[in-house]
Amino acid sequence: MRRRGGNRHAGAECPGPVRLAVAILLLGGGLLGGAAHAADATAADAAGRVVAGQRLFAARCGICHAAGGTGTFMLARRLGAERALLAERLDLTHELVTHVVRHGINGMPVFTRVELTDAELAQVAGYLTRAAAP
Amino acid sequence: MSMPVPPGLSARALQRALDAFAGVVGREWVLDTDLDRDTYRDLYQPANETHHVPAAAVAPASTEEVQALLRLANEHRVPLWPISRGKNLGYGGSAPRLTGSVVLDLSRMRRILEVDARHGYCVVEPGVGFFDLYQHLQEQRIPLWLSNPANAWGSVIGNALDRGVGYTPYGEHCAQLCGLEVALPSGELVRTGMDAMRNGRAAPLFRYGFGPSWDQLFVQSNFGVVTRAGMWLMPEPEATLGLTFALPETTDIIWALELLRGLRLQRVIDSSVTMGNYLRTATMRSQRAEWHRGPGPIPPDVERRIMEAYGLGRWNFTINLFGHETILEARARVIREAFAAHYRGEIHETRWRRGEPPPQSGAHIPTLIFLQVINWWGGRGGHMGFSPILPIAGREAHAQFEATRRRYEEFGLDHFGGFTMGERYLTNVNQIIYNRDDADMTRRAHALFATLIEDAARAGYAEYRTHLSYMDPVARGFDFNDHALLRLNETLKDALDPNGILAPGKSGIWPRRFRGREL
Predict the structure, then answer these.
(1) Which of B382, B105, B136, B379 is nearest to A116 (CA)?
(2) Is residue A8 part of a domain?
């Protein structure tokens, strides 16, 4: 586990990589406790998929899209701070997430199917759209 | 979009090769849909670009699979373009030099094979990224530091093999390579240096081995596929000390470089010093429209406003020192005394001691913050780096900076210029930032790049690393004795890769079957 915390980047407006690393870590752990309380098997399966998606999001996307990440900064500038953190957005759809990951948008690069397989992308999209799930 | 094919190969023959590749790696790791081709193109390329378009990608998981794919590529005469993680952004990313090549994506090979804290090295596979290695060092509590490039999304090995740089005393990444495992174009596996012994005990410790030293021949070349490498890592220092300067006038670089060269040669300074103009800070922290909406380059009054807003000088840089605190204090005193004759401004100091929260120096934690720069214009941003190598000479550097600035203005682009000082050389770093949704701007960005290469060649400078599109013109600049160096590289290429299947055109080195065809 990472041992250190604090923002060490010189620019006051720039994100600190360590703060980012901590944010990724917290993101990775946030839903784990919640999943254990799922009442029935179906709900547990769904929660498990969300947790898997959350882990993947933290590992593959979090270096840009956790708090303090470069993607979060870019989104804050373009869409405002309230829509900058993808994990907190309620307006994302499965189709949008899939399209952006495979085709890119603005400063966001594409991901190949090696870097994020179709199955993994579905899990990430499931996590980011969890609020809209039935 | 139909599948592009390499010159001299039919679509059917290429498909047969892909089927054979699938027999090695499994069908799911041969990626040949239109979408796959798009995802392996140069991120910053215009959508209608026909150069550097891959036919497909194939992703092996092991050295054995790499060897098998190379043998099949020979059999089917299919060019392969190896990438480690494909994040060489600004230089072509994951795209091949030659349209119709099959990208050999090594990003599934991401094992950290060994980390030795006692001797300060790691042995890793090409898919290991800076974030992966950083996380491993942190989780295992290994007191070694990374040297990260500005864009740390990529591969540790891949960055070193393209002569990437970082900002610690270990910042010349290709110089930290020590012992490579390489699959030759034939598929045969070799190890270099002391690693060439079956039971070598000093493999990642002595760079040269016995006889010719091959590690650097696999850097920026197309002579083999590096499947693992030893890399030296810096022991965690006892302390760091950063001294930040803001020089008020553009001409201040003339005395500053003369002074810094002396300090570097004496090894009072032992890491690269990077100095940039105002745009380096502005592009990281803001978008252009926040300052100026007019056409053409940023006008001087807006430039001044940006500098005032961020408290910048014309040249802004930090000298980072790493090591024992007692020694750092002494070195800082020498630096302060040297600057005292010329510099009356504030010297901002940042200090860190082992055990404290991480240092201000920004040295060892990977970050992607640099990618903010592509957000400057709005739209889908792109960037390319034009970076010729100069001597560390104040007047010469100033003249190059001013000439380059005038070229940017001529092409209607904002000049993002600066220098990174190595041990005996100066890299003149110029970022060309553009909005690739603006076709005219994209065209101007490329025209500027081509012009800067010609200007530099006339002045006796050449780039150390370049985008796929400029590998041929940059290679042509090395023209002593009618391009004898290029002919030597071609001789090696033909000997090692007679069928010309590995990375044709990399660094301007074309195999015989494609040579002289202006591909």
Answers:
(1) B105
(2) no
Distance from CA of B501 to the nearest CA of A (A): 23
Q: Quote the tokens at residue B247.
A: 């020089």
Judge if B11-105 and B239-465 fold alike in CATH terms: no
Domain at B11-105: CATH architecture:
2-Layer Sandwich (3.30)
The nearest alpha carbon in chain B to A13 belongs to B285
Partners of residue A3 in chain B, C-beta under 8 Å: 138, 141
Minimal C-alpha gap between A91 and chain B (Å): 22
pLDDT at A18: 41
pLDDT of the residue at A30: 39
Cβ neighbour number for residue B207 with a 10 Å cutoff: 18
pLDDT for the residue A22: 39
Domain hosting A96: range is 17-132
Chain A CA closest to residue B358: A8
Q: Where are the domains of chain B?
A: 11-105, 112-235, 239-465, 472-514
- Catalytic site positions of B: 91, 464-465
Instruction: Name the stretches of chain A with pLDDT < 70.
Output: 1-41, 133-134
In a domain, A102, yes or no: yes
Distance from the Cα of A99 to chain B's closest Cα (Å) equals 11
Contact A70 B358 (CB under 8 A): no
In whole angstroms, what is the distance from residue B180 CA to residue B36 CA? 30
* Residue B67 to residue B212: CA distance in whole angstroms: 24
Nearest CA to CA, how far is B309 from chain A (Å)?
12
CB contact under 8 A, A1 and B31: no
A133 in B contact zone (CB under 8 Å): no
- CB distance A106–B141 less than 8 Å? no
Question: What does the alpha-carbon distance between residue A106 and residue B371 come to, in Å, rounded to a whole number?
Answer: 12
Whether the CB of A60 is below 8 Å from some CB of chain B: the reply is no
CA B180/CA B190 separation, integer angstroms: 8
User: 3-state SS of B84-98?
Assistant: CCCCCCCCCCCCCCC
Q: Answer for the pair B408, B418: CB distance below 8 angstroms, yes or no.
A: no
Q: Is A33 on the interface with B (CB under 8 A)?
A: no
Closest partner residue to B285 among A14, A63, A64, by Cβ? A14
Neighboring chain B residues of A107 at a CB cutoff of 8 Å: 371, 374-375, 380-381
The confidence score (pLDDT) of residue B518 equals: 85
pLDDT tens digits along B110-127: 999 999 999 999 999 999
Residues of chain B whose pLDDT is less than 50? Answer: none
- Select B472-514's CATH number: 3.20.190.10, 3.40.50.2000, 3.40.50.620, 1.10.45.10: 1.10.45.10
CATH classification of B112-235, choosing from 3.30.465.10, 3.20.170.30, 3.20.20.150, 3.60.20.30? 3.30.465.10
Q: For residue A35, what is the enclosing H or E element? A: helix A32-35
Rounded Cα gap, residues B80 and B96, in angstroms? 8
- Contact call for A114 and B108, based on CB within 8 A: yes
d(CA B460, CA B240): 37
The domain B239-465 belongs to what CATH superfamily? Answer: FAD-linked oxidases, C-terminal domain (3.40.462.10)
Read off the CATH number of the domain in which A119 is found: 1.10.760
- pTM given for the model: 0.92
Residue A48, pLDDT score? 81
Whether A73 sits inside 8 A of B372 (CB atoms) is yes
Q: If 0-12 CB within 10 Å is exposed, 13-18 middle and 19+ buried, where does residue A113 land? A: buried
Q: How many distinct structural domains can be found in chain A?
A: 1
